[in-house]
Each structure stands twice: as structure tokens, then as C-alpha cells.
Amino acid sequence: MDMLSLLCVLLTLSFTTASDIVKVDVSSKSEDPYGHLHAYHIVQPIRLEGNRRKRDLSTRTHDKVFHLSQPSFSIRTPERDFVIDLELNTGLLSDRFIEVTFDNEGQRRTKKLHPERCYYHGKIRGIDESNVVVHTCRGINGMIHDGDEIHYIEPHIHDDRDTPQNHVVYRKSDIKNQPKEMRCGHNSTIKMDHTILKEPTEAKSRKKRAIPTYNSALSTRYVELYSVTDYRTYQRYSSNITAIRTRAVQLANTMDSIYKTMNVRVVLVAVEVWSSSDKATVSTDEDATVDAFCHYKENNLPMKILDYDNAQLLM
Questions:
Q1: Residues of the signal sequence (predicted)?
Q2: CATH number at residue 68
């Protein structure tokens, strides 16, 4: 693949939740919605505020518009206790963010949005090599890596409160029948060539400047990401565009947590949902799916309208 062109990446990411990995029906109210796990724990996290411990897990500020910049949570399981210290990822969403859907006739519908900024990076207190990537849009949802093993936390599927109290915690190794990852390109890792890295439009004020080399430590480089979700996922999420958007933003948040260690930041500029049908062939043939999506990206994504670097298909 020509790395001088926009990078096209197909991901079935290993750091999604179990419901994403095994493709369970996220709207399911079955008797055992966690049958796809070998083991899990039901917990009730506590939000720490100074010396106080709060059952109210919401990170929304008093005006209900913004989210706390540096919340902390205590999570206790029979196996171990976590205290996670978080920092709001303020640069994740572009000020130019758009959402693209399709009507019943297959016509593209585009609108500018200001999604809730409730996405965090963090650490387990006392473990420098740890990494935490969660969102708090509705409860706590995401990944906790303790340096040795990946743990997931998500609201219990039967807790319908606006801010759920009951959560499920499990290890990545507890997930049954994990599929292999799918990535666009010929190598097993995602590559980001320095030619696609630049300052986001809202940061550079249209000022032209040379792009630093990839290994430069002098300045931060940015990848502006266009995320696409296929039709099967749209159906699996019961046509819930908000839930699909939240998932796409959280995946971008996870990518950003990885690349920021290399002084590269991910900025999400758009979420497109194939809400009427797949706009490119999606099949079990990984190479064919990659080729079809890359062709769609080159010929159908609104590059002339929306400036971006990287197009990604989420399944």
C-alpha cells in the first residue's frame, strides 16, 4: 500500500469491550448476558473527591455541560483493588466534527455535532507502567491495563440508570473465542508515515509550515481520523447512532493513548455510519474487505469537504 496516500486502516481492535469482540447483541436482556465470559465480577465503583467517597459516579460538572478534568475512582474486586486517576482528553474531538448517516434511499446525510467530551486517559495509582482508557458518558466504560494484563470495565447491561452504579469487571483472558485482529496493509502493525501527520486545522490557523520528521521530539504531530462503522454493527446496536458514535470515539481515544507515547495525537473529525446498507463489500475475506473499503475511501469519502488523514472501518 502506498504510504504517501491517506492511510487506510481496517481494525477489529483488541482493546474493545467483550461485547464488541464477540459481537453480542448489546441490547440483549437475556438471563445471562455474560455467557461469553469465563469469569467476571460485579462491582460498584466509588468516585473519590478529596477525602470524600461518592456513590454518584457522574463526572459531569454542576452545569451538566462539561466533565471533570481530573476525576479518580476506586474499583474493588475480590482479586484486587484499583484506584484510577484520570485526565480528560480535551483534544480528542475536532471542533469541525461531523456525523454522517444514510437515509432509506441511501442518500448521505451530514450534520455538524459537538459530542459530549467525556473521554479520559489515566493511570492506576502507584503503577507507572499502567494505562487506563475509559469514557464516563454513562457510567465507566473502557480498559485498564495494569502493566501485565488488560482488564475491562463496563456498566452492567441490566442497570438502566442514567449513571449506572453496577459495573462488570473482567480480564481480557476471560473472553471466550477471541477472533484475530484485522488490519489494513501487509504488516501486522499499524504504520503512520510522517507525510500524513500535521497540525489540526483549528490549531494551525491555516498557516503553512514544514511537517517535522516522524522521530522528531520537537513538536507534537497530529493524525485527523475519519471513522466508518459498517451496517452489521449498526444493526447489532439496534440502530442506536449515539451508542455507535460513543464506541467510535472511544476507539479513537484508545488509539490516541497509544500514539501519544510517540508524540503523535489522534483527532477524530468525523463518524460515518452505514445506516441503510454497506457502502463497500464487507465479508469474511479480510483482503477483499480491505480492498473494497480502500476503494470506497478513495472515491466516496468527502475529502474535498473535510480535511482528514486517516480513514478507518470499524466492524
A1: 1-18
A2: 3.40.390
